[in-house]
Amino acid sequence: MTEIGRLRKNDTTEIVVQKTEYRGSVGIDVREYVTSERYTGWSKNGIRIPVEKWPDFKAIMDQVNPDEKAD
Predict the structure, then answer these.
(1) Where are the beta strands (DSSP E) in the chain?
(2) How many structural domains is the chain composed of?
(3) Which of 13, 46, 48, 51 could form a disulfide with 26 if both were Cys (CB 3.0 to 4.6 A apart)?
(4) pLDDT tens digits for 11-48?
(5) pTM confidence score
(6) Which CATH number characterizes residue 20's domain?
């Protein structure tokens, strides 16, 4: 596992990006990590992109315009 980066979502949650291997398959995990009085650890929220699909996923994400109004 190689941690790529973290982004604070709110007071108790960070979004963590990691390159991982699971059952012989390498992928990029984007998951939430929670730190609170009740619970500290990984939440069920997240996604895993197989490394061979990463260029396609990145191309989609590059199309995101945060200033554009949602429909």
Answers:
(1) 2-8, 13-22, 25-35, 40-50
(2) 1
(3) 51
(4) 999 999 999 999 999 999 999 999 999 999 999 899 99
(5) 0.82
(6) 2.30.31.10
